[in-house]
Specification:
By secondary structure, the chain is an alpha/beta fold. It has 2 domains: about 140 residues, Enolase-like, domain 1 (2-Layer Sandwich); about 120 residues, Rossmann fold. About 35% of the residues lie in helices and about 25% in strands. The protein contains 13 helices and 10 strands. The strands form 2 sheets. It has a 7-stranded mixed β-sheet, sandwiched between helices. Strands 1-2-3 form a 3-stranded antiparallel β-sheet. Helix 7 links the parallel strand 4 and strand 5. The protein is globular. The model has no long low-confidence stretch (mean pLDDT about 95).
Amino acid sequence: MILDEIVERALAFNLDELKIIDMCVGYPYTYVIVGGRDGVEAMGVALTPLVEASDYEAWNPPRVLESSMKEIIQLSTSIHMFERVLGVATINAVSQYVLRYRLEDLSTGMNTIEILEEEGASTVGIIGYMKPLVDELKKRGFKVMVFERSILWRHGEALSDCLEPRILPEAEALVITGAALLNDTLDIVLDYATNSRVNILAGPTAQQHPFLLKGLKINYVQSSLILDVERARRLLKITAWHKALFGEETSKTYTLKVES
């Protein structure tokens, strides 16, 4: 599966140069902070998979306190959902550390609308309810099909993800929440969207280095680089995720192209 491939590639990073500073399974985002020998810290985040979790996770805490960074990354494919989210957040933190000084050179400077218009896509599948994006796409005249797995986040015309096999073949482009990587539905979405010309992995959970996604049917990643790690940590602890991950004082959004 795609997540297994990403884990294998992430282990190729020079992990010996890094150490984990802090981690927290929070609502709605989990974070992991890593630091290098140069004193620089980077934060990786991932959407906490509360919909997929059960009382098993509550009574069996993640096995991470005595684990190495390599071992935590390998937990990204665990069936324990909180171990899994810490693993993915660690991959994202390492990715952000590596990307930190190259982001200006790598960023395309394009937003979602510009990518879709450049590709000539008029019918767009949105995986994960992203209201601002959905509203903007409709305003621009795109036909939009929205799918949301969680009943907690499914609003308006968003459809259950059980309808994806029936409807996704109509999509000419996809904008996919990074959470689809975490819950292993990314493989399924890409398999059903047989006519999609461009696939964008988006959102805070999509902080992966493009190298990790090369050749895996993802064309762009759009996410947030955390500029002020300490401020973001304080905000995430009080569930102020929007300020932490999208606030101008704390973060910077970017779009990176992924090699096919």
